[in-house]
# Entry
Amino acid sequence: MALIPEQVRQQLKDRFETVLTGPVHLTLYTRPGSSRLILPAGVGCPTCQDAREMAELLRDAAPEKIILEVVDVSRDEERALADGVPEVPTIALASDSETGRIRFQGLPTGTEFPALIDAVERVSRAEPGLSEDSLAALAKLTEPTEVMVFATPT
# Structure
């Protein structure tokens, strides 16, 4: 059974066709071939295959706008570390080929899936969705700042 039902896939295609304006570079950091087996040394990724299916779904919903790159961290650990991606799966979004600063660690399903779709749309439209006050406050920052948002249904 597919992670995302066909009806939702079609709705996503229809939505992206009208909403996306600019390119979105989506990078999936994964460790393929590890299936659902988790070994004591931390080797294994129970959700990497599902994350890949989700990333491919996004690409396939708008192939002319969404560019997908898959990074196998078992083969390119240096790249993952340089990009600041310590965990898999991680989905990173950017408007260009730079390292994506919007990241979803783990599998963004359930209540996190709409947030992923919203992030894709905002990146495509270069629309941060922040108030004028927030943008003004951010403009005053003089040093790099990391913002983390944690989502949980509970």
